Amino acid sequence: MQSFLLFALLSLFAASQADVFIITTYNSSDCTFASKSQSYPTGCLGVGPLSNQNSIDGNTAFVKSFLGSGSCGGNAATTLNYTLGAVCTALINGGNTYYKAYTGRTVTPAPGPNDQITENYSGSGCGGTGNAVITYNSGCTAKDCGAATVGSTRGVCLTQGQAYATPNSSGFAVTFSLAILAVAAVIVLF
């Protein structure tokens, strides 16, 4: 019984990590020095009349953009696809830009004190679905949560060695996973 509960908890944790994929871009073919990382929560993210449908199918991540619909309806205006697996890959029509794509909320390379982290949320008060954009070696300015053109945004700065995970696609998923962990811990202990 305890083994089953442990397996169920690990499955939930893995599921909460897989609802986000990250694209890290580089300016050289050896993918040594990152210029930017951006997280993409899976599902439909509407921003006014625009929307993105982010999804994962096998080892490919897709970003479909829709115009004139905040609900990912109709035909996609653009579709970008990225090969997952953290392998250095040339960006199609990206000139001398290369990328690594991977699932989970942990950014590689890890951002540090000189890297700007901007978190964008679909709701007010930095709630709802969120994503992060990390610009490396740009300096950092912390900003409290404030209203954006649509939704809300904040600037995050890290101290040396501080860990960072991108926002989950839903605050509910994090809360639910933590609640399940707490209940399972009580069951396992008794």
From TrEMBL:
Q: Transmembrane residues, as ranges?
A: 170-189
Q: Provide the alphabetized UniProt keywords.
A: Membrane, Signal, Transmembrane, Transmembrane helix
User: What is the designated name of this protein?
Assistant: Uncharacterized protein
* Annotated signal sequence range: 1-18
Q: Which organism is it from?
A: Planoprotostelium fungivorum
| Taxonomic path | Eukaryota, Amoebozoa, Evosea, Variosea, Cavosteliida
